[in-house]
Amino acid sequence: SGLARARAATQQLAPPMEDFSVVKLGMRKYLEDDEESEGFEEQLEGRYSESHELECSIWDACLFVGLGVLGEFDAVVLMMCYLVNLFVQFLFTVIIWSRFCKSPFSEDLVDNLRKWRATYGHDSMLVNPTTQESIVANVCSGSETMTNSQVQAELYTTMREFLPRFMPDPLNSYIRDSLHMPFYDGKSSNREGGIEGVGFHLSGVELCTMLMMLWTLMICRELRGTYETHSAVWTKARMAPLTTDLTRNANGHLVLRAITVTRATWITVFVTLPRFVIACLLLVGGSYFIVAAGNMEDLILNALSLEFIIHTDELLYSVIASKNTRMIVEEVQPLRLGQFWNRFRTHFKVFMILGIVLYVFMVNEMILGPVVSNMKAAMTTMCGGDIKFVSRRYSDGAALLPPDLWLRHRRDVLRRERRRLPIAVQDPVGADADDLHPVHGYDA
To answer: Which own/partner pairs from 407-415 qualify as long-range (CB within 8 Å, at least 24 positions apart)?
Structure first.
């Protein structure tokens, strides 16, 4: 028949099976009487599937403890490095979570600055003898001749560097609308804090976002390495072999062909699980640590210190681990990953990118957002409104606030509303500093 003739022609044209190799694309490759067949098959598996190349770190080097390829001294040194790495990384993680996760720009800082301004900021006895201006005016202008409130001046300068495009409101809209005051722009008052207001400035929010993106990428690399090690180990243990097989192929490379279930379990408990927990804790704690920086310089230094912590295992591996251990890790052929990773690796990459963007956005909204709001409130408390007037405190505890220019303009209107909104308040010594303001709700 025609089908038989076509089949015979195909057999004549096709070379014999022993003369060519069948590349494994969903099928197993069988080669007989070829001493390099095993090495070639391993290369094909690494070519057509995702594989994990062992990293030069203490974590991956621990896979070979107890296999007989390391000497007793090398194994002891490796275990000591493992314990030191585990202790150091956990210790720094606990220190970051317990002591360095709180930003100095809190609501308590805003309250303390409000009391400072009401008590000392406009005191006539503390004016700058050189410029004859109040402490607040000198702090907000970044004067180099003031002798008081150096801490407040440095704090305001730091916040101006972090938020260069934010300027305290000369007169808050609530006060202006509620008291029917004329607009007061305060253009004659310098509120730059010694920072030039011209040119391009990279704000602290932008720098913090960039560093947070880099830190998240670094942790994602650590998490991916952890998962690949876990997947490769359990792929070798899925057939439940009786012994762990580590041999050399025809090319002279070490090949890890099988891992017992017991060894795979120990590797999961003592290698991959601690590495995963440390990476997750450092991801969240490091985000708070970066945001809690007191100035622009500390942002970069905090990010660099986090990189030092996450790379402690590689540092110990390169400095203390023996040369024999490093040679074995470098000679091992890449380990093939499981079918789940090979099937959904494209989806993993897409989800990883979306997860990084979502995490950075959440950090900006939930961690960095409140810090920026407190900074703006602190800057407005320090340098908002009229910053040039001075007050005088008498021995009887009363504070006399001289009328401002716009108060004199509206004197008649305020007199008609005296019962509801008094112009000045005289309180005894020891009263709350907020009550020393000339009008309700007006900070100094």
So the answer is: 407/438, 409/182, 410/179, 410/180, 410/181, 410/182, 413/180, 414/179
**Pairing state of beta strands 245-248 and 254-258?**
antiparallel
Phi, psi for 395 (deg, rounded to 5): -65, -25
Question: Radius of gyration over alpha carbons of the chain, in Å?
Answer: 35
CB 117 within 8 Å of CB 385: no
Please check whether residue 251 is in contact with residue 62, taking contact to mean a CB–CB distance below 8 angstroms: no
Tell me the per-residue pLDDT of 237-295, one tens digit each, with 9 for 90 and over.
887 788 888 888 877 788 888 889 999 999 999 999 999 999 999 999 999 999 998 88
Query: In angstroms, rounded to a whole number, what is the distance separating the alpha carbons of residues 47 and 25?
Result: 11
What pLDDT digit, counting tens, does each position of 358-394 carry?
Answer: 999 999 999 999 999 999 989 888 888 778 777 766 5
The neighbouring-strand residues paired with 245 are 258
Give the pLDDT of residue 343. Answer: 74
Q: Indicate if the alpha-carbon torsion angle 222, 228, 229, 231 is positive or negative.
A: positive
Q: pLDDT (tens digit, 9 = 90+) per residue, 152-166?
A: 888 888 888 888 888
**Whether 305 contacts 96, CB under 8 Å:** no
Give the distance, in angstroms, between the CA of residue 165 and the centroid of all CA atoms in the same chain.
23
* 31 and 41 Cβ atoms separated by less than 8 Å: yes
Taking the CA of residue 139 as centre, how many other CA atoms within 13 Å lie in the half-sphere pointing to its CB?
30
434: DSSP letter: G
In angstroms, what CA-CA distances link 95 with 41, 91, 297, 311? 49, 6, 21, 17
- What is the phi/psi pair of residue 293, to 5°? -65, 140
Tokens of 232: 């490769």
Task: Answer whether 217's CB lies under 8 Å from 210's CB.
Answer: no
**Token pair listed for 266:** 């120990």
H/E stretch holding 56: none
3-state helix, strand, coil in the chain (%, to 5): 60, 5, 35
Which helix (H) or strand (E) element contains residue 51? strand 51-52
Q: DSSP alpha helices (H): ranges in 127-199?
A: 135-141, 150-162, 173-179
- 351: exposed, middle or buried (Cβ count in 10 Å: 0-12, 13-18, 19+): exposed
Token pair 């907000």: residue: 140
Q: What is the pTM of this model?
A: 0.72
